[in-house]
Design goal:
Layout lengths: L9 E3 L8 H18 L1 E3 L2 H10 L2 E3 L4 E3 L2 H10 L4 E3 L8 E3 L6 E4 L5 E3 L6 E3 L2 H13 L6 E2 L12 H11 L5 E3 L5 H15 L2 H6 L3 E5 L6 E2 L1 H12 L4 E5 L2 E2 L7 H22 L5 E5 L2 E2 L12 H16 L4 E3 L17 H10 L6 E5 L1 E2 L4 E2 L1 H14 L6 E3 L1 H4 L1 H7 L9 H10 L5 H9 L5 H14 L8 H19 L1
Parallel strand pairs: 2-13, 7-19, 8-21, 10-11, 11-12, 12-14, 14-16, 15-17, 16-18
Antiparallel strand pairs: 1-22, 2-4, 3-4, 5-6, 8-9, 20-21
Helix pairs in contact: 1-9, 3-9, 4-5, 5-6, 6-8, 6-18, 8-9, 9-10, 10-11, 12-16, 12-17
Length: 489
């Protein structure tokens, strides 16, 4: 039956779908069976006890928790289906889930920086993190910031705190940390953020940062990381349970096996979060790919990466959970910045973002995320500006069909001169910036000098909208110093 005029307001968004309903059911049922029969290895006595008290079957000797279906269903029902990743200034808040294209972030946790002046690779420092985050803060195409680089100029056990604190100082956008070393470290992360938010109660209401917490594939959780996750969710900090299953190494080589392993780990992580803090914001995540059979590396650019991303995104939506699946960024395995990857690899990375994910990361990456480059950050931001229109929302309803206009124009005539075209073409069509499009046309490193100049200009001219005052900086430094001294004793 044709709906009445004006009643329907449907929005269409381009999506890549991989699993049908029957296949989704199979992945889910496998995960339930795996959690119930095989369980997950949890290397934390306190988290094991918590799960056991909630109904899981615990083997203290092997440290395996077998999780019944009832606990999974309860966790799914308790997890919020929408929430906000808050920013310091309130202007860059991110509502999850998204309605069209995903929010994009930088890469992380690279271990070296390509020096913007010398072009040489070197160990990254806090100054490099500050520069990378500052450039990301200035680029409108970048929605939130990962801490991106490893601070090698600080005590190794405290690098995560230094990275988070440095990021806070150089952006008002939402910050996503990628380091969880221990419960004590996560407690200090909360204390740092609370300084800025106005206390821990205020932080819980408006969490200005979130944290990536990775299971160790296959099906295990390290002591420090999982105890840190529990500490974070109790403080109201959104946790991203990123499975990094590598097909053929840490999960079955089959695509179905890798998707199922990632899904099982996500459900186990969700159960832990919701058992520790019912209603805690939790983001389903997978950065899973087949292993590169020639190098042993993760294979971000392979065709299967986009398929796995689409499959895991579908599973997250089945549970009603916001998600971060797949990545963005043209780095692939190129050690140099630019657009050097073959077109098929860039297309594969792009399709990852069309699988239904709400969040994505990877801008500035070079050398399979081992390195990062300020020039690459600018290039990736410009690329994303031209790619994201493929996923913008389109109205599909009686108004968009424009039947009255069709009748007025008649058979075999042109719509070019009709007022309807002049009124609507700027709303319906996207016009690429010709200068930025020229970068894509080279598929080379020709854009690097211009990108370098843009990054340098930002570093000189851009000021963070809300700088942290000297008193807060001093308090933050004391929190980090206290952790360094405690950890050493």
């Amino acid at each position: 039956m044709r709906p009445p005029r004006g009643q329907v307001d449907n929005m269409a968004v381009a999506r890549m779908k991989f699993l049908d309903k029957r296949e989704e059911d199979l992945v889910h049922s496998y995960s339930i069976r795996c959690l119930n029969e095989m369980g997950v290895l949890v290397r934390s006595p306190s988290v094991l006890k918590m799960l056991g008290d909630a109904g899981a079957s615990i083997d203290e000797k092997t440290m395996v928790a077998k999780i019944p279906e009832s606990m999974v269903n309860e966790a799914i029902s308790k997890a919020p289906k929408n929430f906000t990743l808050y920013s310091r200034d309130g202007k860059h808040d991110l509502s999850l889930p998204t309605e069209s294209y995903p929010y994009i972030s930088t890469t992380g946790l690279a271990v070296y920086i390509r020096d913007i002046d010398t072009g040489k690779n070197r160990d990254s420092t806090r100054k490099d993190i500050a520069d990378m985050v500052k450039v990301g803060d200035a680029l409108d195409q970048i929605d939130y910031l990962w801490t991106t680089l490893t601070a090698t100029d600080v005590p190794p056990h405290a690098h995560g705190l230094h990275e988070l604190w440095t990021a806070f100082q150089n952006t008002t956008k939402h910050v996503q940390g990628v380091s969880v070393g221990s419960m004590k470290e996560c407690r200090k992360q909360v204390e740092l953020a609370a300084l800025i938010a106005g206390g821990e109660d205020a932080l819980k209401k408006r969490p200005i940062f979130s944290v990536i917490c990775c299971p160790i594939a296959p099906l295990s959780f390290e002591k420090g990381a999982i105890e840190g996750q529990v500490e974070l969710v109790k403080a109201g900090i959104p946790v991203v349970s990123m499975s990094m299953s590598l097909g053929g190494m840490s999960s079955p080589v089959t695509i179905g096996g890798t998707i199922a392993n990632a899904n099982t780990e996500n459900l186990a992580s969700l159960v832990i979060s919701q058992t520790a803090a019912p209603g805690a914001p939790h983001i389903y995540s997978s950065e899973s790919t087949p292993v590169n059979m020639m190098t042993g590396n993760i294979s971000y650019e392979c065709p299967e990466a986009a398929i796995i991303s689409a499959g895991t995104a579908q599973m997250s939506k089945r549970y009603g959970l916001p998600c971060l699946t797949g990545g963005w960024g043209s780095g692939a395995d190129d050690p140099e910045p630019g657009l050097l990857s073959p077109f098929s690899e860039v297309a594969s990375l792009t399709l990852c973002s069309m699988g239904g994910t709400d969040l994505s990361a990877g801008a500035a990456s070079i050398d399979v995320a081992k390195g990062a480059s300020l020039e690459q950050l600018v290039i990736d931001a410009y690329l994303w500006e031209n790619w994201r229109p493929f996923m913008r929302k389109f109205v599909i309803d009686d108004t968009s069909f424009a039947f009255d206009v069709v009748k007025q124009v008649g058979h075999g005539n042109s719509f070019m001169t009709h007022p309807h075209t002049a009124k609507n073409f700027k709303k319906e069509l996207y016009f690429r910036d010709k200068k930025k499009l020229a970068w894509e046309e080279t598929l080379s490193s020709k854009s690097v000098p211009e990108a370098k100049a843009i990054a340098k200009k930002i570093l000189v001219e851009h000021n963070v909208a809300i700088p942290l005052d000297a008193g807060l900086l001093d308090k933050g430094a004391r929190i980090i110093a206290d952790f360094e001294s405690i950890a050493q004793n």
